[in-house]
Amino acid sequence: LNAAPGCAPRQHVRFLPTPGDGGTTELVAVRVPVLADHPLVRGPRFRHLKIGAGHRLDLKASGVFVLGIGHGNKLLTDLYNCHLTKVYTVGGLFGKATDDFSDTGTLVEKTTFDHITREKLERILAVIQGTHHKALLMHSNIDMKTQEAYELAVKGLIRPMGKSPPIITAIRCLQFALPEFHLEIHCLHETQQYLRKMVHEIGLELKSSAVCTQVRRIRDGVFTLDDALLRTQWNLQSVQNAIQNCRLKVKAEIEKTL
Amino acid sequence: KRKDRVFVWGFCYSGALGVPSFVKPDVGWKKPRRIQPTPYRLETEEKISSAACGYGFTLLSSSTTDIIKVWGMGLNKDSQLGFQRSRRDLTKGYEYVLEPSPIPLPLEKPQQTRVLQVSCGRAHSLILTDSEGVFTMGNNSYGQCGRKVVEDETYSESHLIHQLKDFDSRVVQVVCGQDHSLFRTKKGAVYACGWGADGQTGLGHYNITSVPTKLRGDIDGVNIIQVSSYGDCCLAVSDEGDVFGWGNSEYLQLACVTETTQVNVPRHLPFKIGKIKEAACGGTGNIVLTEEGNVFVWGYGILGKGPNVTETAVPEMIPPSLFGWSDFNPDIRVAHVRCGLSQFAALTNRGELFVWGKNLRGCLGTGRMEDQYFPWRVTVPGEVVDVACGVDHMVSMVKSF
């Protein structure tokens, strides 16, 4: 960043003495660059960069992680107040139960899982979705008797605009191959440990047990996997391109909600 | 293994929920509960195949070949639950029954006949069997039990259970309105008896009928596949997807064909909303379900389209997104619709129950006491197979996970 050509040094008008014709010194107005702006005087332009993080991501989880740079940190709080949903791909394994709900913890119990079918899993997912939908409507603090509550409910736009416990807005089974399964979860205000706990509870409801093998965030509000930069792409040019691409999207989203 | 369960909720003091500890607590620290706002599991010995909620009482029936096939609980002041011999005084009967008590039926072949369906009205009940016709009990002051009206008859503590057998073919559905009864036979004909002052018997007059008589009018010759009634208005659905209505029309239920407030002959309702699969009638509002799985409501009251829509004569569709349909779940459809007096219930193909309407004494089961202006999911631990709606309570048959 510091190597990029900075802005041109300021110019100001100074009255400099110049030797005039015939020996008298005259003051002539000349535009001269300010000495204080000279790069050798000022030093490198950027010494610290303020970087803020968006929604947290666990050590064991992976996926989209939003960062704000410099003035973008202010947009981070606005994005948080928009309460947009995040989408995760969660991988699970039937047959084991561990103490921290993931496959690297200490084993607590082993169970059989041959009785589990995709329909049973989908039934449990439907119940989870139902109860969380109710929680969504209740925490959104809208009076159910008003016409606008009805219209928002029809469009599906009711969502809690303040603090609330983790709510799953949609959950779907992507792959099912015993003993493994993959779920796509859309949620609000959650932590990755809560998602692992949800996998464990699904295992319990199916009269077996399950651990979570993988948690991957594929969307965080407006930022999807396509906008995300890989480890190999962590250089100035790609960062600047990414900021450019997302700027409009973020602005539109903030204006829509607030 | 998936077990079959029965869940009840609503007003408890009439005993209609079948849990005696709500009314008369068995343990000292329990207090009598006036309202059960969320679904409560009712323990039954047999698998319940059909349930019906009347005005303060409930009937449960199972399709078993045992001697006891029907249980009743709740109000019994007009012997709508049969004669329940009191244990304290063997000559008298109970006026309130607090737990599911067997109803003895005078069957000829009790070990072979099966009970198919039960239905309850304001003070009378109908029990449909597969080979012995229809049994009726309860109040008969308007002839709704299908027998001649006896002047000054006392209906409480009565042992009389009347049997109805002569119809043109086997009866396949019985429906109770407030003070009238409807019978649908296998050939597609509809018979009615009972009070007719609003034309709800559909027989062309406004008098009472004490013998089941066949209906004519627009449904003459039409193969009817479903009949529904709960108040004073009746709807019938034909196999071609047409809907016919008769009875009370004070709340615009039949206003699309006539301006009169009582219609005593079945009239075809020319709705252009598609082929209709199922219909249900409430006290002031009606609901139909089309083949595509869309739900239409009309009438008066809380119809389910927000607080502004309180009356409409033309059916209006309830947006499927309120039942859980979205781009994420595009294959959610409403499978059944049911009506209470001022409540509506819808069952989806995923086994979820949605209710809306006036929350009279907590009958919606949402856990809140306020009226519900749009469909709201009821949390039941299981897949809801069927639901029966009453005035102030509801009963649901649920398959556990």
From TrEMBL, chain A:
Domain of life according to the entry: Eukaryota
Q: Where is the Pseudouridine synthase II N-terminal domain?
A: 47-191
User: An example of a Gene Ontology BP annotation on this entry?
Assistant: RNA processing
Any GO molecular function: RNA binding
Homology family: Belongs to the pseudouridine synthase TruB family.
Full protein name:
TRUB2 synthase
Natural source organism? Eurystomus gularis
Automatic annotation (TrEMBL), chain B:
Q: Which SUPFAM superfamilies match?
A: RCC1/BLIP-II
Gene Ontology MF: a single term = guanyl-nucleotide exchange factor activity
Q: Which UniProt keywords apply?
A: Membrane, Mitochondrion, Mitochondrion inner membrane, Repeat, Transit peptide
Its GO CC terms?
mitochondrial inner membrane
Q: Which Gene3D superfamilies match?
A: Regulator of chromosome condensation 1/beta-lactamase-inhibitor protein II
Q: Which organism is it from?
A: Eurystomus gularis
What this protein is called in its record is RCC1-like G exchanging factor-like protein
| Subunit structure and binding partners | Forms a regulatory protein-RNA complex, consisting of RCC1L, NGRN, RPUSD3, RPUSD4, TRUB2, FASTKD2 and 16S mt-rRNA. Interacts with 16S mt-rRNA; this interaction is direct. Interacts with OPA1; this interaction is direct.
Compartments reported by the entry: Mitochondrion inner membrane
Supply the PANTHER family for this chain. RCC1-LIKE G EXCHANGING FACTOR-LIKE PROTEIN
Q: Which GO terms describe its biological process?
A: mitochondrial fusion; positive regulation of mitochondrial translation
Q: Where are the RCC repeats?
A: 4-64, 66-131, 132-187, 188-240, 241-292, 351-400
Gene name as annotated: Rcc1l
Q: What does this protein do?
A: Guanine nucleotide exchange factor (GEF) for mitochondrial dynamin-related GTPase OPA1. Activates OPA1, by exchanging bound GDP for free GTP, and drives OPA1 and MFN1-dependent mitochondrial fusion. Plays an essential role in mitochondrial ribosome biogenesis. As a component of a functional protein-RNA module, consisting of RCC1L, NGRN, RPUSD3, RPUSD4, TRUB2, FASTKD2 and 16S mitochondrial ribosomal RNA (16S mt-rRNA), controls 16S mt-rRNA abundance and is required for intra-mitochondrial translation of core subunits of the oxidative phosphorylation system.
What region holds the RCC1-like domain? 3-283
